[in-house]
């Protein structure tokens, strides 16, 4: 099967970029006779010794004279293995926005280095922009090796220097190829001049570089693009949600959550013109049908209930400013387009401007002008559902549009919301929560109840929620005020802005702990079934209660991993084992069992009801 | 695509799309984006292979609903009957509205002045009729089948390309176009030309026609017809052209690589009778060294030339 690969080149004629592209097209037989004839003629006329392949981009040169060659040009060629799309961009700093544009869709970036000059500012800048735009594979073409006597030490020196620099970047795959684009060495055909080079020529590398796993196949994301309602007799009741899969794999039968409503339903079918399919993955364009009549429109997003993107109106982003007309300044208002969502946005803060040559951060900067890159904070009118750009280039990117001129003025890459600083109680341990003038004793006495928190921790599918439900019923049977705080439901509301990173899980636990404490204070038995995998987070919740003088009962639902995996009611373990969910507790993320819980429940303790009774027996009785 | 994945559903763990499936998905995304963000789109449909593929993709984009916009044909009046027959048959089968803008109407009204002489062509006049049709239809998005591999200026044009109120393109003031985030904003009177096939090559179009088994007008395949050599091209003899005394009309087995105004669309000598023959012919000029063994006398003239050039390098 032939696959599509997009790569970006940046540079000027001086670097040999045009020669390199010309060489790729020429040696892969992607050039037509008439083009070649004119190049050969001009080369002869100029008295050049070689056919000057840079002239193949002659159109570019002519346009440059008219001042419009600053633009990205797209070129195409194919080999039996792959179809290639080249985003050919100019290399000078004044064309940074064009480089950014070309890089935004590229899988691979070619960085040109002149072997005579070594690593210049320009090469560093290209490498930085490639990494900023999320390109995982960099191929450093050390060109003009013919002018340094095909020197292996020179090649190694440049490679070493580049590698040192690249440690500061987010590059996954870095390859070096010594070449002469002019003479054709190591572009399509292997070089006879550099027997010491054991790697492969550039084209062979491009044909084989593995890009399939660059897509995010872990976090299911489906921005709804268009609602299909035929209003025709033959498909009277049809209602489908068309869009392009932006991440993960969606399967018929999967439970999905609709954002922003938070409603969950099931995928009843995935349709294409060519017939239904069982699953859809990026970048397939499909139409999803849902089992329930739920309200879904363009701009909404389908995800999985346990794997939602960040939902937020305050956004941290890195932007490249693209307007020559006016600078970016705090307070500026724009139209923001993100996936299929368009909303208004205001720049709240410019945190710093980045010098793209030195990577120095200028925190005193007050504006960003054309081609400048900086870190900003935005506030949007409607919430966005996004992932960090590094995790997902589709759900992590946006553009800003000037409301007056309607031109695109910025390209933005979203960053994970800053980990909230851990909030420690500022009050002294003995302070008791006061609401107005009514104290806890007065409240509990009047209600005839006593508040506390029952915290059930354990692996996914260990049975926490079932036990919690039974406990709630037992307590209510005794006319005691009880409330089950479902951690999954809280993720729709108070925790809707949290993902599943370690920091977010800690924050998730902290907030649930705070909410539970409020319920307890109010006189309710707060029952909290939540995985809460990290001991330090549970300890913090315990301390929170103890400092407030509230009872905290930690119950470890100790169902062995094998048993949880066997149950797997939502198929999560299966998917985690298949590598579709990353950082799943018990599979590739640790669960730290409590060392001294109030109670340990094992499957041998019987049914959820029997287990709930064991908990009830351990709870402090109301006086 | 009947089978976009590498394996059967469920067993395929690589989750890869073929190049054609990826191009198809990108085009469908673009077409849906227009369907969602514009009030009055229209799709330029000439009966040429690119517009046929575009129409096919539009059907896929909205299926099972019908395409929510009409198609527009700018008709020079100099048509190949096979193409007009194909056009009418296709729009009837799909159940889509066909709007025809007649160049003749603009000539009659004096808005366009026809060239005279044996080499006269209405190619240039089409622009007048196109812009009038867009204005009359109050269309705000116009799908075109142009591809970036066709020529150098197109290689730089955006997928969503703004036209001012005079229908003009300003290459110096193009909007940056990043990721798959298309800026569709425009003022009243302006419109956007949208090119969903931007990243397709001629060969991709043919491969897609083959794998999708898309019906195309018969003149794309080899057939015998009377022609005349003119400016290095073979021009079909039709009622719309006059043959000079010094020109020699003869019959030849030809096919058309593009389909447009009959007076200026050249045919090529070809015996490619099926879509697969055409693919072989089209790929011959860009065949790779590894595939070079397949090259023989059957390939086109350009392919022959190419091989001779290899001697120089």
Describe this structure in words.
The complex is a heterodimer of chains A (623) and B (313). Chain A has 623 residues and is of the alpha/beta class. Chain A has 4 domains: 3-214, 3-Layer(aba) Sandwich (Rossmann fold); 222-303, Elongation Factor Tu (Ef-tu), domain 3 (Beta Barrel); 313-415, Translation factors (Elongation Factor Tu (Ef-tu), domain 3, Beta Barrel); 440-618, 3-Layer(aba) Sandwich (Rossmann fold), CATH 3.40.50.300. Chain A is 25% helix and 26% strand. Chain A is built from 15 helices and 27 strands. The longest helix of chain A has 20 residues, at 502-521. The N and C termini of chain A lie far apart (74 Å). The model of chain A is unreliable at 60-64 and 418-435 (pLDDT under 50). Chain B is of the alpha/beta class and 313 residues long. Chain B is built from 8 helices and 10 strands. Chain B has helices at residues 19-37, 49-62, 81-94, 103-108, 126-137, 202-212, 275-284, 301-310, and strands at residues 41-44, 71-75, 98-102, 141-143, 160-163, 191-194, 223-230, 233-236, 249-256, 266-269. In chain B, strands 3-2-1-4-6-5 form a 6-stranded mixed beta sheet, sandwiched between helices. In chain B, strands 7-8-10-9 form a 4-stranded antiparallel beta barrel. Chain B is globular.
């Amino acid at each position: 099967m032939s696959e599509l690969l997009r790569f970006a080149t940046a540079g000027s004629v001086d670097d040999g970029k045009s020669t390199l592209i010309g060489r790729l097209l020429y040696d892969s037989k992607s050039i037509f006779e008439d083009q070649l004839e004119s190049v050969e003629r001009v080369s002869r006329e100029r008295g050049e010794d070689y056919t000057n392949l840079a002239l193949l981009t002659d159109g570019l040169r002519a346009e440059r004279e008219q001042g419009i060659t600053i633009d990205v040009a797209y070129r195409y060629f194919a080999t039996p293995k792959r179809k290639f799309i080249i985003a050919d961009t100019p290399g000078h700093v004044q064309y940074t926005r064009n480089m950014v544009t070309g890089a935004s869709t590229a899988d691979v970036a070619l960085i040109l280095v002149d072997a005579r000059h070594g690593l210049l500012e320009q090469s560093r800048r290209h490498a930085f922009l490639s990494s900023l735009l999320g390109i995982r594979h960099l191929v450093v073409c050390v060109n003009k090796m013919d002018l340094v006597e095909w020197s292996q030490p020179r090649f190694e020196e440049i490679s070493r220097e580049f590698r040192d620099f690249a440690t500061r970047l987010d590059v996954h795959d870095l390859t070096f190829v010594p070449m002469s684009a002019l003479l054709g060495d190591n572009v399509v055909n292997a070089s006879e001049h550099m027997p010491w080079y054991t790697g492969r020529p550039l084209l062979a590398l491009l044909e084989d570089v593995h890009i399939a796993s660059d897509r995010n196949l872990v976090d299911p994301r489906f921005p709804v693009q268009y609602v299909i309602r035929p209003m025709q007799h033959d498909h009277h009741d049809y209602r489908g949600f068309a869009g392009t899969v932006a991440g993960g794999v969606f399967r018929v039968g999967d439970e999905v959550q609709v954002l922003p409503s938070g409603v969950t339903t099931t995928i009843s079918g995935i349709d294409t013109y060519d017939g239904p399919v069982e699953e859809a993955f990026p970048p397939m364009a499909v139409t999803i049908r849902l089992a329930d009549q739920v309200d879904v429109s363009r701009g909404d997003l389908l995800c999985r209930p346990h794997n939602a993107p960040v939902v937020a109106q305050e956004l941290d982003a890195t932007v490249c400013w693209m307007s020559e007309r006016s600078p970016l300044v705090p307070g500026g208002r724009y139209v923001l387009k993100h996936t299929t969502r368009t909303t208004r946005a205001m720049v709240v803060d410019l945190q710093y401007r980045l010098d793209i040559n030195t990577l120095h951060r200028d925190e005193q900067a007050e504006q960003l002008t054309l081609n400048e890159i900086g870190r900003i904070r935005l506030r949007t009118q409607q919430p966005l559902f996004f992932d960090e750009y590094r995790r997902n280039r589709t759900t992590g990117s946006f553009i800003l549009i000037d409301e007056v001129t309607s031109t695109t003025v910025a390209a933005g890459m979203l960053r994970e919301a800053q980990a909230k600083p851990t909030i420690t109680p500022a009050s002294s341990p003995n302070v008791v929560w006061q609401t107005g003038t009514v104290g806890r004793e007065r409240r509990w006495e009047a209600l005839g109840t006593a508040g506390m928190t029952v915290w059930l921790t354990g692996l996914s599918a260990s049975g926490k929620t079932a036990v919690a439900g039974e406990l709630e019923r037992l307590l209510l049977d005794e006319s005691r005020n009880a409330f089950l705080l479902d951690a999954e439901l809280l993720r729709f509301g108070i925790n809707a802005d949290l993902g599943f990173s370690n920091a977010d899980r800690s924050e998730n636990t902290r907030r649930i702990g705070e909410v539970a404490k409020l319920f307890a204070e109010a006189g309710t038995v707060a029952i909290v079934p939540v995985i809460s995998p990290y001991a330090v987070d549970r300890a913090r919740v315990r301390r929170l209660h103890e400092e407030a003088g509230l009872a905290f009962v930690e119950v470890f639902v100790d169902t062995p991993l094998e048993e949880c995996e066997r149950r797997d009611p939502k198929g999560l373990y299966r998917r985690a084992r298949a590598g579709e969910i990353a950082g799943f507790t018990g599979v590739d993320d640790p669960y730290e069992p409590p060392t001294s819980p109030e109670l340990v429940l094992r499957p041998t303790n019987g049914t959820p009801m029997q287990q709930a009774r064991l908990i009830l027996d351990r709870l402090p009785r109301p006086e | 695509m009947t089978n976009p994945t590498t394996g059967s559903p469920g067993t395929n763990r690589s989750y890869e799309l073929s190049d054609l499936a990826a191009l198809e998905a990108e085009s469908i995304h673009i077409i849906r984006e227009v369907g969602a963000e514009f009030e009055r789109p229209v799709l330029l449909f000439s009966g040429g292979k690119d517009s046929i593929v575009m129409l096919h993709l539009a059907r896929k984009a909205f299926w099972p609903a019908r395409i929510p916009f009409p198609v527009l044909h700018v008709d020079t009046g100099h048509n190949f009957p096979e193409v007009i027959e194909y056009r009418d048959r296709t729009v009837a089968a799909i159940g889509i509205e066909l709007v025809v803008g007649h160049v003749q109407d603009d000539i009659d009204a004096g808005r366009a002045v026809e060239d005279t002489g044996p080499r006269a062509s209405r190619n240039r006049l089409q622009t007048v009729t196109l812009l009038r049709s867009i204005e009359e239809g109050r269309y705000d998005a116009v799908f075109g089948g142009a591809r970036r591999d066709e020529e150098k200026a197109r290689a730089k044009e955006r997928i969503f390309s703004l036209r001012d109120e005079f229908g003009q393109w300003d290459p110096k003031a193009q909007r940056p176009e990043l990721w798959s985030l298309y800026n569709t904003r425009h003022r009243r009177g302006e419109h956007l030309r949208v090119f969903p096939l931007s990243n397709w090559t001629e060969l991709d179009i043919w491969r897609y026609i083959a794998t999708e088994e898309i019906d195309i007008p018969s003149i794309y395949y080899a057939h015998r017809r009377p022609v005349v050599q003119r400016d290095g091209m073979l021009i079909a003899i039709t009622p719309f052209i006059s043959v000079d005394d010094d020109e020699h009309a003869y019959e030849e087995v030809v096919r058309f690589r593009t389909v447009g105004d009959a007076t200026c669309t050249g045919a090529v000598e070809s015996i490619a009778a099926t879509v697969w023959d055409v693919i072989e012919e089209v790929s011959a000029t860009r065949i790779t060294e590894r595939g070079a063994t397949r090259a023989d006398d059957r390939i086109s003239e350009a392919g022959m030339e190419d091989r001779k050039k290899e001697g120089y390098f």
